[in-house]
């Protein structure tokens, strides 16, 4: 036990920019359940989705065995798989939110109940539907997923699945799993200093490219903001000029209205004076006629 611990402590764990050179990081690693249960996380890596076997970074796992139980819960289905490696593993299958299942995607009401439920499970990463209807106890199946932990125990979040219908298919998987363990997982992952330097330069170049792209995006946003500001100022200047014209026109209209009112009042006053003079003349003429008649 002490030897194993010393071997673990002397392993070299490479920076995350080296992971793309790993034979296990971005592939479905065929493993036995007993080996999967011994995977560990490393505190110095922020990505808690990455587990390690020795110093091999692992994110995607493929296992094969017999489904020994299936338990339904409101939000997940738990499958237990036994691959005869001396351990069993729980496989977590996420259920889709019933409210998120669109009505057109549901089978017709005349379909069998098991057909209506077969696509109510989804992948936790892509949210694509997963059909686990064939995965009943006693079924030999190939399961692919991402590791996680629950109460210090490693589980598998199901991403893909398929039954193994023949013994030859199972034997092919076991042969590939054995070769992966012997040729890859049994020895630490080693990178030369030149390779680490090259990967570091590539990571720096990629980081610079991303920063340059971000800077270009920010410059585009600033230019767009400046252009919109200029357009806004132009619109406001035109509006203010139009407002000044409207104010002058309104002032001229008010002055013309005052002058027209004054002119109409003068005309009305003259008419009243003329009417008054006419009435006075008529009364004077009437009085004269009356006086002449009396004489």
Automatic annotation (TrEMBL):
Region (Disordered): 271-295
Biased composition, class Basic and acidic residues, residue ranges: 274-287
InterPro entries given in the database record: NA-bd_OB-fold
Protein name: CST complex subunit Stn1 N-terminal domain-containing protein
């Amino acid at each position: 036990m002490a030897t194993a611990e010393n071997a673990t402590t002397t392993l070299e764990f490479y920076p995350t920019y080296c992971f793309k050179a790993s034979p296990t990081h971005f592939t479905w690693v065929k493993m036995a359940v007993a080996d999967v249960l011994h995977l560990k996380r490393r505190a110095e890596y922020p990505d808690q989705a990455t587990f390690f076997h020795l110093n091999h970074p692992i994110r995607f796992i493929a296992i094969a065995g017999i489904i020994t139980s299936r338990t339904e819960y409101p939000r997940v289905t738990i499958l237990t798989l036994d691959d005869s490696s001396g351990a069993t593993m729980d496989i977590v299958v996420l259920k889709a939110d019933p409210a998120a299942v669109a009505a057109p995607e549901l089978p017709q009401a005349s379909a069998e109940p098991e057909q209506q439920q077969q696509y109510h499970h989804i992948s936790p990463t892509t949210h694509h539907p997963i059909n686990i209807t064939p995965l009943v106890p006693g079924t030999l199946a190939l399961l692919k997923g991402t590791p996680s932990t629950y109460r210090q125990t490693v589980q598998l979040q199901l991403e893909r699945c398929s039954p193994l219908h023949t013994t030859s298919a199972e034997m092919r998987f076991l042969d590939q799993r054995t070769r992966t363990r012997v040729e890859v997982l049994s020895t630490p992952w080693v990178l030369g200093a030149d390779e680490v330097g090259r990967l570091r330069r590539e990571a720096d170049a990629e980081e610079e490219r991303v920063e340059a792209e971000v800077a270009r995006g920010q410059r585009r946003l600033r230019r767009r903001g400046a252009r919109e500001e200029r357009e806004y100022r132009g619109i406001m200047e035109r509006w203010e000029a139009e407002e000044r014209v409207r104010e002058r026109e309104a002032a001229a209209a008010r002055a013309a209205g005052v002058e027209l009112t004054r002119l109409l009042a003068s005309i009305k006053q003259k008419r009243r004076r003329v009417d008054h003079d006419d009435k006075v003349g008529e009364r004077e003429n009437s009085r004269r006629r009356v006086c002449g008649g009396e004489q």
